[in-house]
């Protein structure tokens, strides 16, 4: 365990008999700095103390961050391996569990080939673990089927950035420059609830006169004080962006010198958005022309602007288009690569940035290398010590893995750090797929909804029981510290992968004793790649409050501002996109007259497996609800507190109504943090983006029905059993089908 | 202690981190002493935090028949002392801000004490430490006065502030203090 004292100039309250261990929050991409209070004698976790000197959050925390330490020694922690016998989990030793895993993995691979075993990863883990997941799948198991939950989170942003800028780094500028920004364009990002500690930077800029433009179907807390709130229909972001791009061109707001020097394809983009007049944009998006004009003028005049977006624009079947169009707005204004201006995606998961760069994705190798590039294969094979011919081919995306299970190609799965039984779209299909698996292993530290489908559950340890690094939403690589020894029999994920690798006869490729050993190998593996971490050391991270990648050598200062001279494309110029507008995969019609959008509440993180167990957070937000505009509600005779059934082509849910004028009249909103009967993802549409394979969580067409007041709600979402009564509808099992209709109908 | 608690309701984003953090203060026994509420959720998402105003002449102390609510030399109004509190709950009714709360199990009142164990060392109370929107701040008196003047200054530069009804009808002519 490494101690780390608070900075000498910062005063913290250190109680007698306690010490502070400096680390970061386990939840979202902000990765807020914090100290964990630990009893000096017993090593028990006592609480949290703000870390005032960390520049990204300056001691600030959201309620999840304040209570994060409570998950470490939580009584619900899984303490031993569990093996399912006759439908019931029984405690087991590591040897027994590994025996079962070894026997089944080997049997299935012998009978059905190596690819029959798959790995499903997650990015709420350290870089060391995320890197190892890719190596584990490809070297220990030799399978091509590896993907991760970032496909439900960051992959559209990655796709859009790669397409336009050539390198996918979530933010082109550090958060510390926010206070000098003149205009924030916030699209589909509920910053106040999903990344609350960013608010302080935006408010500070606003105190100096900065303008805020918010594009969101809901009047989110930030929209309340915004200069313009573009209350667009869900799924019409591309239209909004094209309208505004055309507006920038028409009103001569384009930084012509910058575009000529640094961007390709400008004339084509100009021609492609020419038809998007304000009238047409207004008709498609449902935003008043006056608001579009104001937004266009504010964004166009602003000398330093930042474009911020998040899942609202990305979790659509055209997420990549949305991202590249919004990024182009920043490019036309000449904003990228300069002080206090640029573009950023608000990374949702803790290590969403680092975790997607290093080979957990079906088609990527460490350092953002492509699995289709023979040179990359050769280099990484060299680092791993395998023959390049052994390297498996690219697999399929996360949601498509369920199709492969249904097709019988994938017969076993090792799920780590993810809970797709809550977080994937079209859950009835996903649940059925889990049931179809021949053998299913899950590593987790709480009994998640996905664990319940498992044959073997392995106790992973929490973020506070291992050393490592993560990369926050800025691209800043930071240190996670070990706060206590692993609880019970739990082990860090890398140790679990190492043990399984040994059982599969591949132990010689996993000779790690500590997380630092993995880090040192990982640095070499990333060397020369787009995401180059080779110059970053754990000591530098401590001294410099994190180091920004790319950092190709130890005397390189890191790269807080990206693309200062050139973009990451082959010729160094940004690619402006040409996009043909496509409507959402599904939209309101007579039968399903309302649009459903989903999202987060401030009290819960992703599938809620951790936060639903924290007393304060579950008290504040116990059950899902549906937000409805009073005008829409009155046509259904609904009041706040009434029970409503929502139904789509895939499934249904019963929730309580909450009436507020802070949402569009044709749209309802439900948060997604609950499982089983309370999971809104039973309803969402798995229509995938053609490039990023991101499902369309944010738009689907829904029916509403008022239910009698005595309809039971499910009281304890953690213990509602999931029996065979899963409402699986075979008719709707075509996973990636999209109900595409013609645009004329849509725009009416 | 030369610092003050400075509240800016407009900045509140309703995350309730202050409430969660209040429970974490060493002397607070896991009970929060502040609260956050919606103004009117059916209208919009505006929320506001409320903490003890540390009144100069506190109503809670005035109505206490047992003289149990003490004020420190720095002016912090403390929770009722355990020995003296008779559990009459007068203070909970007297406070115009709804701050004193009552613990029925222990039969005594408890209230926001500005995290006295922290603030007496000039370390920010937990709520002000964590508030992600700076709606609650623990700052020097001088800094507070400057912030108040800055408000006025900004209003003068912009001519007028956009209101709820016309905020998008407002054409900006001024961008940030760093504008060229």
UniProtKB/TrEMBL annotation, chain B:
Top-level taxonomic group: Bacteria
GO MF: 4 iron, 4 sulfur cluster binding; metal ion binding
Residues annotated as domain 4Fe-4S ferredoxin-type: 3-33, 43-74, 76-105
InterPro entries associated with the record: 4Fe4S_Fe-S-bd, 4Fe4S_Fe_S_CS, ET_IronSulfur_Cluster-Binding
SUPFAM superfamilies noted in UniProt: 4Fe-4S ferredoxins (SSF54862)
Pfam families linked to this entry: Fer4_11, Fer4_2
UniProt keywords, alphabetically: 4Fe-4S, Iron, Iron-sulfur, Metal-binding
Name this polypeptide is given: 4Fe-4S dicluster domain-containing protein
């Amino acid at each position: 365990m490494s101690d780390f004292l608070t900075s000498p100039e910062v005063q913290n309250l250190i109680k007698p008999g306690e010490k502070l261990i400096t680390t970061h929050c386990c939840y979202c991409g902000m990765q807020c700095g914090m100290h964990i209070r630990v009893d000096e004698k017993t090593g028990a976790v006592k609480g949290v103390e703000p870390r005032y000197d960390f520049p990204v959050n300056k001691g600030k925390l959201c309620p999840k961050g304040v209570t994060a330490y409570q998950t470490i020694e939580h009584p619900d922690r899984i303490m031993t391996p569990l093996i399912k016998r006759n439908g019931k989990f029984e405690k087991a030793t590591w040897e027994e569990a590994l025996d079962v895993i070894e026997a089944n993995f080997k049997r299935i691979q012998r009978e059905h080939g190596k690819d029959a075993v798959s790995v499903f990863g997650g990015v709420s883990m350290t870089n060391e673990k995320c890197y190892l997941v890719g190596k584990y799948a490809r070297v220990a198991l030799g399978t091509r089927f590896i993907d991760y939950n970032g496909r439900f989170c960051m992959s559209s942003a990655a796709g859009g950035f790669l397409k336009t800028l050539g390198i996918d780094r979530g933010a082109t500028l550090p958060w510390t420059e926010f206070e000098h920004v003149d205009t924030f364009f916030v699209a589909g990002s509920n910053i106040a609830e999903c990344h609350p500690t960013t608010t302080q930077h935006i408010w500070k800029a606003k105190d100096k006169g900065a303008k805020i433009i918010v594009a969101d179907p809901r009047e989110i807390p930030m929209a309340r004080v915004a200069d313009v709130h573009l209350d667009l229909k869900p799924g019409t972001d591309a239209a909004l962006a094209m309208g505004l791009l055309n507006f920038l061109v028409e009103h001569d707001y384009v930084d012509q010198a910058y575009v000529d020097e640094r961007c390709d394809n400008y004339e084509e983009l100009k021609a492609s958005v020419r038809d998007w007049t304000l009238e047409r944009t207004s008709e498609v998006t449902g935003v008043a022309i006056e608001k579009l004009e104001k937004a266009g003028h504010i964004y166009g005049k602003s000398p330093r602007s930042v474009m911020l977006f998040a899942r609202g624009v990305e979790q659509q079947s055209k997420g990549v288009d949305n991202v590249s169009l919004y990024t182009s707005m920043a490019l036309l204004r000449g904003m990228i690569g300069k002080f206090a201006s640029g573009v950023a995606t608000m990374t949702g998961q803790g290590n969403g940035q680092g975790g997607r760069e290093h080979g957990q994705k079906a088609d990527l190798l460490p350092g953002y290398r492509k699995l289709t590039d023979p040179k990359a294969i050769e280099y990484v094979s060299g680092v791993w010590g395998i023959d390049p011919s052994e390297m498996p081919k690219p697999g399929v995306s996360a949601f498509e893995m369920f199709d492969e299970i249904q097709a019988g190609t994938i017969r076993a799965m090792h799920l780590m750090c993810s809970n797709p039984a809550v977080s994937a779209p079209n859950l009835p299909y996903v649940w059925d797929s889990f049931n179809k698996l021949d053998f299913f292993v899950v590593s987790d530290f709480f009994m998640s909804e996905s664990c319940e489908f498992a044959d073997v559950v392995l106790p992973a340890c929490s973020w506070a029981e291992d050393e490592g690094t993560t990369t926050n939403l800025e691209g800043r690589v930071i240190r996670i510290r070990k706060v206590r020894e692993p609880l019970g029999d739990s082990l860090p994920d890398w140790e679990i992968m190492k043990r399984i690798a040994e059982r599969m006869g591949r132990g010689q490729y996993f000779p790690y004793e500590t997380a630092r050993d993995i880090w040192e190998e990982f640095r070499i593996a990333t060397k020369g790649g787009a995401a180059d971490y080779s110059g970053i050391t754990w000591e530098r991270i401590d001294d410099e409050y994190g180091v920004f990648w790319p950092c190709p050598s130890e005397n390189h200062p890191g790269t807080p501002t990206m693309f200062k001279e050139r973009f990451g494309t082959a010729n160094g110029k940004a690619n402006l996109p040409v996009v043909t507008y496509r409507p959402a995969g599904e939209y309101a019609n007579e039968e399903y007259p309302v649009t459903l959008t989903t999202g987060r509440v401030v009290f819960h993180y992703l599938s809620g497996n951790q936060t639903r167990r924290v007393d304060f957070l579950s008290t504040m937000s116990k059950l899902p609800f549906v937000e409805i505009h009073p005008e829409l509600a009155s046509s259904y005779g609904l009041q706040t507190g009434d029970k409503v059934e929502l139904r789509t082509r895939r499934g249904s849910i019963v929730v309580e109504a909450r009436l507020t004028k802070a949402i569009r009249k044709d749209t309802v909103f439900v948060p997604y943090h609950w499982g089983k009967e309370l999971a809104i993802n039973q309803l969402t549409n798995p229509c995938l983006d053609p490039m990023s394979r991101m499902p369309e969580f944010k738009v689907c067409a829904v029916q509403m029905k008022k239910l009698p007041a005595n309809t039971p709600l499910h009281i304890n979402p953690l213990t509602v059993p999931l029996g065979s009564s899963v409402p699986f509808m075979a008719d709707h099992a075509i996973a990636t089908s999209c109900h595409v209709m013609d645009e004329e109908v849509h725009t009416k | 202690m030369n610092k003050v608690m400075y509240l800016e309701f407009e900045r509140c984003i309703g995350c309730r981190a202050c409430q969660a953090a209040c429970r974490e203060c060493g002397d607070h026994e896991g009970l929060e002493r502040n609260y956050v509420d919606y103004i009117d959720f059916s209208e919009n998402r505006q929320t506001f935090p409320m903490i003890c105003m540390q009144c100069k002449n506190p109503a809670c102390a005035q109505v206490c028949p047992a003289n149990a609510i003490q004020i420190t030399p720095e002016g912090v109004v403390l929770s009722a002392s355990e020995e003296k509190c008779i559990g009459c709950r007068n203070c909970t009714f007297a406070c115009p801000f709804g701050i004193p709360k009552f613990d029925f199990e222990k039969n005594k009142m408890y209230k926001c004490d500005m995290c006295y164990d922290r603030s007496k060392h000039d370390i920010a109370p937990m709520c002000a430490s964590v508030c992600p929107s700076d709606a609650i701040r623990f700052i020097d008196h001088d800094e507070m006065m400057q912030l108040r003047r800055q408000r006025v200054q900004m209003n003068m530069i912009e001519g007028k502030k956009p209101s709820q009804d016309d905020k998008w009808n407002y054409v900006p002519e001024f961008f940030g203090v760093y504008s060229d």
